[in-house]
Amino acid sequence: MKVTVIGCWGGFPKAGEATSGYLLEHGGCRLLLECGSGVVSLLQQKADLGDLDGVIITHYHYDHCCDIGPLQYARQIKTQLGQIHKPLPIYAPDGEFFKLLKWEDYTYGQSFSQDSIISIGPFEASFIKNVHPVEAYSVKITCEGRTLAFTSDTSYFEELNDFFYCSDLLISECSFYDYMDGTKAGHLNSAQAGMLAEKAQVKKLILTHLPHFGNLEDLMAQAKQNYSGQVLLAEKFMEIEL
User: What CA–CA distance (Å, rounded) separates 171 from 174?
Assistant: First the structure.
């Protein structure tokens, strides 16, 4: 399984970059995890928008889903040009935004909940409900014996340790530095991201959903105080082979 970071910023994209978006590829299948601001533009440098086999959206905050609209237009145009011939499934929680995932015959929504297990080609995704101001989910995606863990946006809670246990890679949100408390905002800080990685015994940690302030290198140093494995900062077009 190949994982490519398309966007890694929290809230809004840094100039020329994007908020949350991750491309998973294996055996010719392409799955997009999150579709935040700027993702559709950057994704085209790595894959044709007509080649996507599915999209997973963890929640309906704009920095995770606002490029769904441009993606729908892209699928419409490519279908009308005869370049693709099937609608794109978008997996997401139920809610007010869910009905907008259906775009004529070009995209459609498939809802999931904490008990759902969905298969998209070689990928199998399972979910746990997060602690966040809106309904949101962490995701675990397995593919031929390898596991990608993704926190999406959440405050820390103990059940995440078991849910992500022994994953090959944890991509964890890191919205705040260790001296900041993100609990009320529904976010993790650097120390908590490291603690989660250590308790879940994951093999590698990548910090994402990065803040637009402070020295980002400090986030890694702070996470390493609680985690004995490798810690990296997500960056545009970073590629990881699992």
Answer: 9
CB neighbour list of residue 193: distance below 8 Å, 6 or more residues apart: 151, 172, 173, 174, 205, 207, 223, 227
Taking the C-alpha atoms of residue 171 and residue 23, their distance in angstroms, rounded to an integer, is 13
| Residue-wise DSSP of 165-205 | TT-SEEEEE--B-TTS--TTTT--BHHHHHHHHHHTT-SEE
Reading phi first (left if > 0) and then psi (alpha if -120 to 50, else beta), residue 38 is in left
pTM (2 decimals)?
A: 0.98
Pairwise CA distance, residues 209 & 205, whole Å: 13
Residue 96 reports pLDDT greater than 90: no
DSSP 8-state assignment for residue 86: S
Token look-up 């593919």 returns 143
DSSP 8-state code for residue 99: G
Domains recognised in the chain with CATH numbers: 2-241 (3.60.15.10)
